Here is the input.
Amino acid sequence: MFGTFRTLLAFAVVFHHVRVLVPFGNHAVGGFFILSGFLMTLVMQKSYGYSAGGMRNFAMNRALRLLPSYWGALALTLLCIAWIGPDAVRAYNPHMGIPDEVGTFLQNLLLFYLSPFPQDIAPRISPATWAISVEVFYYALIAFGLSRSRRITWLWFVLALAWHVGVVMLGLDKQYWYFNVFAGALPFSIGALIFHHRERLSRPLDDAALPLAVGLFAGFVGLAYGIRVARWHVNFDVALLGYYLNFALCAALVLCLSNIRRPAMKAADKWIGDFSYHTYVLHWIVATVWATQVFGVTAPNRSETSFWIAMLTVITCCGLSLLLTRFIDEPVERHRKRLRERAMPAGETAAARKMQAP
Here is the structure.
């Protein structure tokens, strides 16, 4: 069920950015990071191993997963920018545009921004990719063994927690508790800890995993709504509090989803999950086109129109995703599958498939 979860998180990001429900996107990114911490630790432990060859195969597999369809999405984005004009794009999102420096363009192309604050690297052709840059950073650290054992992972978690405690005590802003690359250490380490302790933590779940996951996702949505309402009635940073409460919700969700064994749902879950990545990297330009060319909206705002822009953005991204999946992802996936099977130790193939290793 990880595929469905990923796509719901991507849709949450869309509704956040189009200003339908603002805290949604921040919480979704935290969920993405926790899930990635779990899954990347899983595949390193069960599929690739920590030898030089294993790390090389992991890196190749991640590159094949992220880059080809991203480049396809970039091509579509560049065509849209050429159509509606860079000024309209910049007005809708000041961070979006075509870089005029070679270094910045290459960072956009490779999905890795050379800054501890990747959000500050601008322009970005696909603005939301700052978070993917954070993911790539932790993919590399996990491949080098940052979550190899429980002891190392607990040390990582404690250091990450110390960062966030320091940020809160010093009164630092969202740049440090959300956008900074080191802020991502806490959710990633939480995901890795779930992997290391999943057997003991999973014992009470049994057949309750699916209904509990549904209830937890309802809590995820309710938390975002609650923060939106609470902002008008309290004088402390309720968004910061909600961000950390969301870690607990998403961690419990990942644990529950890792225990759902419904073979009949596997194909549907994968199909739904394929919409996630494409929606995430395409949604800003698609929303810009709908807003500026159809609704005459020049910048995101909270209105009834925003809801329809968000809905049309989701539908359009799903349509474009089907094309990218058919013509780019499916051919690449056949090669990725061969890489995984070549790297996987004997006896581990079935176990990894049951866990839906990406």
About this structure: Residues 304-343 form the longest helix (40 residues).
